[in-house]
Design a protein that fits this description.
The protein has about 70 residues and is an all-alpha fold. It has one domain. It contains 2 helices and no strands. It has helices at about 5-30, 35-65. The longest helix has 30 residues, at about 35-65. The protein is elongated.
Length: about 70
């Protein structure tokens, strides 16, 4: 497997974990009736990064299939 693809898969796994943790943190903050706007911003950034990494992985896999 291509080294770039391996690194992308690792980063995707880490981002998925971060998204789950951020979601859990937001749930806890909401339950405690505490402002969660900064956690929500971090979650949105992590989700956007995750989408970009997944799209990049799909492009790499398509290119690898064409060669």
């Amino acid at each position: 497997m291509d080294r770039n693809l391996v690194l992308l898969n690792r980063n995707i796994a880490l981002l998925r974990r971060d998204v789950r943790l951020q979601s859990f943190e937001i749930e806890q903050l909401i339950a405690a009736d505490v402002d969660c706007s900064s956690a929500a911003q971090r979650l949105m950034r992590a989700q956007a990064d995750l989408v970009l990494y997944i799209e990049k992985r799909e492009r790499l896999m398509r290119l690898a299939g064409c060669e």
